[in-house]
Amino acid sequence: MLLEVKDLVAGYEGSRVLNGVSLNVDTGEAVAVLGRNGVGKTTLMESIMGLVRPTSGQVLINGTDLARRAPNQLARAGVGIVPQGRRVFAPLTVMENLEIAVRKRGEWTVDKVVELMPRLGERRTNLGSQLSGGEQQMLAIGRALVGNPKLLILDEPSDGLAPAVVAQVGEVLTTLAETGLAVLIVEQDLRLAFDVADRVMVMQKGEIVHQSTTQEFRSDGERAHALLGVG
Ligand SMILES: Nc1ncnc2c1ncn2[C@@H]1O[C@H](COP(=O)(O)OP(=O)(O)OP(=O)(O)O)[C@@H](O)[C@H]1O
Ligand SMILES: [Mg+2]
Question: Which of 127, 128, 156, 172 could form a disulfide with 90 if both were Cys (CB 3.0 to 4.6 A apart)?
Answer without folding.
Answer: 128
